[in-house]
Amino acid sequence: MPNDVAVYHVLPMGAVWKVGLPGDSQPSSFHTTREDAIDHAEQLARRHTAGQVVVHKRDGTVEIEKTFSDGRRASR
To answer: What is the pLDDT of residues 44-70, one digit of tens each?
Structure first.
């Protein structure tokens, strides 16, 4: 992935799911369901020329990666 790709991570945090960019001191948002967090992360990623959503399992491993280019889904 080029360095100019906005990569949003969806991570479990206790009873909620957080959405954020690596290195940001504050998460973009918190959600009560995993699905809501993924939907929000996808909306944010689509705003960029190149965006990616990385969804983590509760154990921290990556479960899903979705890449977007010009607002459209480019890959899984």
So the answer is: 999 999 999 999 999 999 999 999 987
**pTM value > 0.70:** yes
Instruction: Tell me the CB-side half-sphere exposure of residue 23, using CA atoms within 13 A.
Output: 2
* Burial of 59 per CB tally in 10 Å (0-12, 13-18, 19+): exposed
How far is 21 from 37, CA to CA, in rounded Å?
13
Dihedral (Cα; 41, 67, 4, 2), 10-degree rounding: 150
Give residue for tokens 């020329």: 49
Of all helices (H) and strands (E), which one includes residue 29? Answer: strand 29-31
Asked if 32 contacts 16 with a C-beta cutoff of 8 angstroms, the reply is: yes
